[in-house]
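Q: Given only this backbone (112 positions), what sequence would you predict?
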């Protein structure tokens, strides 16, 4: 089992999760985070820290696409280990439907 980040993170990018991760397996894109599935040790401490409920175990139904999505972008984006402020519109975007089509960016974040 591993944990993944899904599209609920897009346009919010809360980083509460990165502070509690004992293995630094979060990677930062321009407007979301992902978890490297091969680095995640399945401890689950990140899941309750996410205000957007964007971190889920891969054992839930239809998670295969998110495992591969997280793998792809964790190999392209820089690691993030420090909590940062969420994106400016995070509170109003939290829970919004269709965020992948509306807002997703493949651009890397700053990391750090």
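A: Predicted residues:
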């Amino acid at each position: 089992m591993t944990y993944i980040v899904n599209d609920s993170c897009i346009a919010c990018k809360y980083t509460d999760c990165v502070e509690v991760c004992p293995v630094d397996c979060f990677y930062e894109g321009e407007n979301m985070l992902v978890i490297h599935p091969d680095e995640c040790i399945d401890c689950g401490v990140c899941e309750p820290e996410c205000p957007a409920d964007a971190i889920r175990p891969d054992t839930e139904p239809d998670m295969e696409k998110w495992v591969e999505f997280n793998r792809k972008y964790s190999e392209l984006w820089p690691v993030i280990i420090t909590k940062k402020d969420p994106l400016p519109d995070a509170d109003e975007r939290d829970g919004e439907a269709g965020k992948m089509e509306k807002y997703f960016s493949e651009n890397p974040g700053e990391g750090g």
